[in-house]
Amino acid sequence: MPPHETIRVLIADDQALVRDGFGMILSEEPDLALVGEAADGAEAIRAARELSPDVVLMDVRMPNVDGIEATAAICRDTSAKVLVLTTFDVDEYVYDALRAGASGFLLKDMRRAELVEAVRVVAGGEALLAPTVTRRLIADVVGRSGRAPVSPRADARLETLTARETDTLRQVARGLSNAEIARELYVTEHTVKTHVSSVLSKLALRDRVQAVVLAYESGLVRPGESPSPE
């Protein structure tokens, strides 16, 4: 998204005070615009379809239709990016939301600057994966979920990747930014962007979060494994 364009934001949370607080923060930024609010997932789905927001701030636990179901519908039916809001940094519901298509998550006790930056990052097409807490979330949930990792060869899509693209995917799975991956693999940041784009295209994935989930669930990356490329 070009920097001069206004980023349209929808807030979905069953607590009016939370919606009001986030709305006030967003309204103070010249490049952000609050276009709507929703008190549950059903309202969020309708609003996302009608208002065409760029980013949806989505609470996970809401009455009627929860944030997970709403995230899946919004990511399926619209081009909006979803940022999940949660009170706890390790929450299986958040993992389910990531699998449903969310581009990342934020803790509700974040600083206002973190909220604003997160909205901008996600609207710009990046996933909010850099925070260590995201890596811990996915490693923790995959480790406790009882999902037995399989050989990477068991996922036919991974066969389409080149060796360097596979190395890039491993680093993405640990939440590294493009700049960090470039340092790890001794390539330029532009080269990393090209590899990431190719990985997402070949694997038919919506964004980097989906790539992380695939990397863990396929067994390409395992919790606690060294991030060094193979």
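Above is the first protein from milestone M3; the second protein from the same milestone is given next.
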Amino acid sequence: MLVLGGCASRGELDISESGAGVTAVRTPCPTVGVPAGTGDLTTFDPATSRDATAIDVVAAMTDVRSTCNNDGESTQVVTNVTFTVLARRARADGARDVALPYFVTVVQGGNAVVAKHVGRVVVHFDAGQTRASVNGSATASVDRSAATLSDEVKRRITEKRKAGKESAAVDPLSAPDVRNAVLRATFEALVGFQLTDDQLKYNATR
């Protein structure tokens, strides 16, 4: 349904005589981030070793950015994401290309994975060079209707409430149907290295 993006939001408190409320501006662009433990990758030689002296290549994902084409007209919201991989190798005895797998996944409502793609970036080391970098990118689209709140839900969230009234003390998001609607329309686009179970364990315990 979608794969990547960025987000923007704005809130303005209304304290006029007619009441108080918050006017919120949402976009269908998902929030972009790197899941904990997946922004770094370490390979070993030999592969079965976890000794510091056997470390072969260390890579880190950084500078994750996104641009979202949210013009409000198209049914699809197109998002472009870029990132940089910084890598270091232990030996610099010759030119070498290292392919590093990465994933892009979209999570709806904080826990439901609705799309995933696995790709590769190739880091090139020149002879005698121990450090190198490469830029990666991805493009994806989202169905605007899936990430847009209904007019009724938006009205209930942003309606003005007067001080002293019972409704002023009630958070509209405490209503299960409103909270669930917001969750269903909330997406995260997460990018990181596609790690093995052993690599994830290494990142968590190093």
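Note on the second protein: Confidence is low (pLDDT under 50) at residues 1-24.
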